[in-house]
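Quick one: co-fold with zinc ion.
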Amino acid sequence: MRAEVSAESAEEIPRLHLLAMVSGMNASAYALAHSMLASQRVASLKGQDFVHGTPESAAFSKRWGMQAQRAGAYVCNHCIDEDLSRHPFSWFRRSHHLIGVDWCPEHGSVLHKVNASRPFDALPHNWRDENKTSPVSAFQASIPSDGFYRRYVDIALGLLSRERPVECGVKRPGFRGGQLV
Ligand SMILES: [Zn+2]
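Sure, here it is.
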């Protein structure tokens, strides 16, 4: 991809931005639709709440743009079945890679982990066909419908669609008249 981008600064361009370019997408739109950047970079320092994927936030795209939040690759058997009923292939989903969310938000069933050293080298149905997926040890068989855990799932999912981090202005403490203010 870098060879395709003839600009001198191609080496500096984050991989996320390169993927957006070859997909014919705006980098911010690509970051929101296809990366987990929004759930990695939830908060920012004051004045640093740049929209994900913009040139100002290139350092963050470089650091977190290609990372899943949860280690490993996860699949949902129902999602695989639905994908294959409409397409000749299946695909991984961002919502299956959130820390603490052990169920498919769409189907409510427990996710399965891919047992392979390079789990993104093949598609979800390939791993299932090879018998290389196993269910994660969730504390209940289906997604919680209420209570604290349901709220956590909703917040974790909601963070994925934020176009910029939450700005957190921290006032440095100082002394005035001998008092800490
Ligand atoms: Zn599913």
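If it helps, The first strand starts at residue 43 and ends at 45.
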